[in-house]
Amino acid sequence: MSELGMTQRMLAEKMNCTQQYVSKVLKGHKDMSLETICKIENALGIEIIKGPDENGQ
């Protein structure tokens, strides 16, 4: 996250959750739901899970 110039607190604010929750997720102490993954993707502007493209690949 430091490469993106974002702190855990900033990510938590964008995800509408606590910094403690973000810390647990990033340390692997908390399982991530698909909803959490989507929130992280949106907050960071990145793609974590990539589905098939228009050509089905």
TrEMBL record:
InterPro entries: Cro/C1-type_HTH, Lambda_DNA-bd_dom_sf. Pfam families: HTH_3 (PF01381). One of its GO terms (molecular function) is DNA binding. Coiled coil: none annotated. This is XRE family transcriptional regulator. It comes from Phocaeicola sartorii.
